[in-house]
Amino acid sequence: MCEDCGCGLPGEKSVGISTHPHTHAHDHGHPHHHDQDHGHSHGESGNPHEHAEGHEHRRTLEVRRSILDKNDRLAERNRGFFRARGLLVLNVLSSPGSGKTTLLRETIRRLGNRLRTGVIVGDLATDNDARRLGEAGAAAVQITTGTVCHLEAEMVARALKQLDLTGVGLLAIENVGNLVCPASYDLGEDLRVVLLSVTEGEDKPLKYPPLFQSAGVAVVTKMDLAQACDYDRDTALANLRRVAANAPVFEISAKTGQGMDAWCDFLVQQHQTLKTRDPLG
Amino acid sequence: MQSALSQALDQARQAGAGRVHEIRLRIGALSGVVPEALQFAFEALSDGTPAEGGRLTIEHVPARFWCATCKREFEAIRLFTECPECHNPSGELRAGRELELASLEVD
Fold first, then answer.
1. For residue A21, what pLDDT band results from cuts at 50, 70 and 90?
2. Interface membership of B20 toward A (CB under 8 Å)
3. Hey, which of A19, A72, A114, A196 has its CA 20 to 30 A from A207?
4. Band of residue A22 on the pLDDT scale cut at 50, 70, 90
């Protein structure tokens, strides 16, 4: 259940995971591996409590523990796995329709064998995105979250079991389109990539500061539409700077290819840095 | 809220407590959490648990950044990272992402 917006109340359907290996043509007879064991514990509710009536000894219990302690620990476990494999891992975040899938599709296509890419895609329903990315040449796994509006470290850990990582150097995790809740959940990534499309308005970063503030990299997408929607570049960049002061900004059109070379070079260079930093890689 | 409540109930049970009268959380301004949503979820989820009828108290933690130019910490205005003195943006968040179960009132 989400800490933020009340989604995922107990009793709702569980998270599903389906694989899209790039090697096979996609037909509708492909096997879906729907993992039924639900990782969340909803066990507390409905628990009958013994309560000695009539006597009350009120006391304070100091806890001081992070609510997302469990997720944070699982994220660290993921991070250890990624490190050991020498994977550069991106957590790609934006509102729905900002162009996450299109950016990833172009990135996968352009990187090709230079840096082989695997993807984990989160959506509430359908495996359309994993199929699109699988067709672009990536090993792809879809997580369907049911009603949950963000990915959690545990879902990623389960999806990893379904993903063939042979030869893969870059793992892109496409989060559920949402500018609020995913900000709180570490997945074990190296880099948070936050997208802002020119069609969304220049003040998006100011409206959703927690998510933009957590960005390691900001990508302005759909630059080909900048003129059509009177995109004010200076204002948008200034706003990004105000909430995400240290994040490098890439301005991209996946459609025309504008900025794609710089973006792909950046990823390759990040992957190299990771390898030199970590002798395991 | 489910994990906050689960943690609270676990702690109460371990301490041998019967009822949970109050759950106190510390929520940072940049945590991404909407306090009103937490209140709503708390009421929905605590029904039928030892925390039913209890109170959820939220302590707000403002976002604080470190300004490397002025060498001082400042409280962010409208969550912007810029220093109110020198107007340089800061990349160093010192507080504001808290999402913490602080304490419980039990018997």
1. low
2. no
3. A72
4. low
**Claim: this prediction has a pTM higher than 0.95:** no
* Chain B hits for A43, Cβ within 8 Å: 6
Residue A239 and residue A205 in contact, taking contact as beta carbons nearer than 8 Å: yes
CA-nearest residue to A208 within chain B is B32
Q: Closest CB to B103: pick one of A4, A63, A245.
A: A63
Q: Which residue has the higher pLDDT, A109 or B79?
A: A109
Q: Evaluate if residue A273 carries a pLDDT over 70.
A: yes
Chains A–B, number of C-beta pairs less than 8 Å apart: 150
How far B68 CA lies from chain A's nearest CA (Å)? 13
Which residues 162-201 in chain A show a CB within 8 A of chain B?
Answer: 180-181, 183-184
Q: Is the ipTM of this structure higher than 0.90? A: no
**A249 vs B: CB within 8 A:** no
Measured between alpha carbons, how far is residue B13 from residues A49, A93, A251, B104 in Å? 9, 38, 53, 12
Q: How far apart are CA A143 and CA A193, in angstroms?
A: 19
Q: What's the helix, strand, coil split of chain B in %, to 5?
A: 25, 35, 40
**In B, residues 57-86, which contact A (CB 8 Å cutoff)?**
78-82
Structure tokens at B99: 């999402």
SS3 A190: coil
Task: Give the nearest chain A residue to B42 (CA atoms).
Answer: A6
The pLDDT assigned to B27 comes to 93
Predicted confidence (pLDDT) per residue in A226-256, tens digit = 999 999 999 999 999 999 988 999 999 999 9
Determine the average pLDDT of the residues in A4-21: 62
Q: Is B93 exposed, middle or buried (0-12, 13-18, 19+ CB in 10 A)?
A: middle
Q: What per-residue confidence (pLDDT) applies to A279? A: 56
- The C-alpha of A180 sits at a distance from chain B's nearest C-alpha, in angstroms, of 6
Contact B81 A242 (CB under 8 A): yes
pLDDT at res. A25: 43
Cα A40 to Cα A50: distance, rounded to the nearest angstrom: 25
The terminus-to-terminus CA distance of chain A in angstroms comes to: 35
